[in-house]
Amino acid sequence: MRAPNNYQQFRQKVDLMLDNALSQEAQDEVMRTVDSNPEYRALLNKERSFRDFVRNNVVRPKVTPEFIQSIKEKIKFD
């Protein structure tokens, strides 16, 4: 049985790793943990699959240059 706190910490590390926000050393540590624990491997694979699904299936609306310019004009710094 896993400790909830450890699982939550590992999940945060997986998120950071998939966001490319971890050092190589920290990524290696995550991968060693994954290699030693099938439950964590499943978590990593599930998160990767979810991110791939979102990346490939979510349609983002197109924005016109005029719209971008109108936003920039409304944001004025004094």
Report on this structure.
By secondary structure, the protein is mainly α. The protein has four helices and no strands. Helix 1 (4-18) crosses helix 3 and helix 2 crosses helix 3 (38-57). The longest helix is centred in the middle third of the chain and has 20 residues, at 38-57.
Keywords:
mainly alpha, 0% strand, 78 residues, elongated, 4 helices
In whole angstroms, the N-to-C terminal distance is 57 Å
Find the structural class using helix and strand composition.
mainly alpha
Radius of gyration: 19 Å
Number of helices: 4
Average pLDDT reading: 90
Could you give the count of β-strands?
0
Helix-strand topology string: HHHH
**Major pleated sheet:** none
Q: Name the quaternary structure.
A: single chain
Strand fraction band?
under 5%
**pLDDT < 50 stretches:** none
Overall, the morphology is elongated
User: What percent of residues adopt helix (DSSP H or I)?
Assistant: over 70%
SSE layout:
Blueprint: H1 4-18, H2 24-36, H3 38-57, H4 65-74
Question: Can you give me a brief rundown of this structure?
Answer:
With 78 residues, the chain is mainly alpha-helical. The protein has helices at 4-18, 24-36, 38-57, 65-74. Helix 1 (4-18) crosses helix 3 and helix 2 packs across helix 3 (38-57).
